[in-house]
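Recall that a protein's primary structure is simply its ordered list of amino acids. Everything else, from secondary elements to tertiary packing, is in principle encoded there. The following example makes that idea concrete.
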Amino acid sequence: MDYRIEHRERQRFVALVQAFPNEIVNDDSDHSIPDFWTECSEKNQIEPMKMLRTEGKRDLYGLCSPVTDSETHFNYGIGILIDEDTDTEKLEQMLSNGYLIWETEPVDYAVFQCIGPDGDCLGETWSRFFKEFVPQTGWTQTEDTDYEIYFENGESGLFCELWVPVEKE
């Protein structure tokens, strides 16, 4: 399984966030998260976020809070990175319109390329993460935000990159 390990310091995102029941995580027939993407797109809520970023750096993030036994729901967000290439003047207006700030802690990530025409490759990558990566590498998932990056100018055939927070056992 091809992967790379990358460290990220604290990151900030502006995102549209919704809570989802934990049960959907292992339900391959559930389309709640893709439906959330469709709904946000149809309501023209994604494009304004992208416009806060410099052209060529308008990557979208699918942010996912940890699924824990102590909670019944997890948060999923569609967002953009806030950094020096973000128009922060317009950010305040976005926040007053229901967008939220999502922050991550400094953490190491295992990064996987999801190759394929649709989201099925994402589920396959998650399956391989637990069946191959974890048992073979000594890395385990931590209770930090994982995310997908959907690149504005991605490689041909690349659906997204999956970034899973990990630590060495």
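Residues 10 and 81 are 11 Å apart (CA to CA). The beta strands are 4-8, 11-21, 60-64, 73-82, 100-104, 107-115, 139-141, 146-150, 158-168.
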